[in-house]
Amino acid sequence: MDTRTRLLEVGLALGAALVVGGCGGGKQRAAPPPPPLPAALASKLATRSDEVADLLARNDGCAALAAANMLREETIAAINAGRVPARFQEPLLGAVNDLPARITCVPPPPPQEEDEHKKKEKDGKGHGKGKDGRGGGEG
Q: What residues contact 122, with CB distance under 8 A and at least 6 apart?
């Protein structure tokens, strides 16, 4: 990165800091912001959400669905425990309730059993050639 680009980035960061720092400098105070989502809870839910995304990226819809359901259960438990501020409850719950419905789980087909006849032939126990090399079973 060249010096000019770096200076531009630093200048933009300082400008943003000054603008943010200058807000609320008047005589009237703004109402305090509502409580945020607790950091530990936000991190836990974000990690679970990333897990769902990673599983979907690997085309593992069934595991992604299970992870999405776990995310929903953890979110509901956090809301019921009063850990999610009221202003976040509805959008958060709406998102986690909608997520599993948008994931398609297609279980892999069951392993194919070999046809019993082919299996016996493969094992040398079928109705293949007889002991004398001719067809007809035992002889």
A: 114
Alpha-helical (H) ranges within 23-131 are 39-57, 61-80, 86-101, 116-123
pTM above 0.85, yes or no: no
Q: Look-up: residue for tokens 């980035």?
A: 9
Cβ–Cβ under 8 Å, residues 45 and 89: no
CA 128/CA 126 separation, integer angstroms = 6
For the beta carbon of residue 68, count every other beta carbon within 10 angstroms. Answer: 27
For 65-95, the pLDDT digits (tens) are 999 999 999 999 999 999 999 999 999 999 9
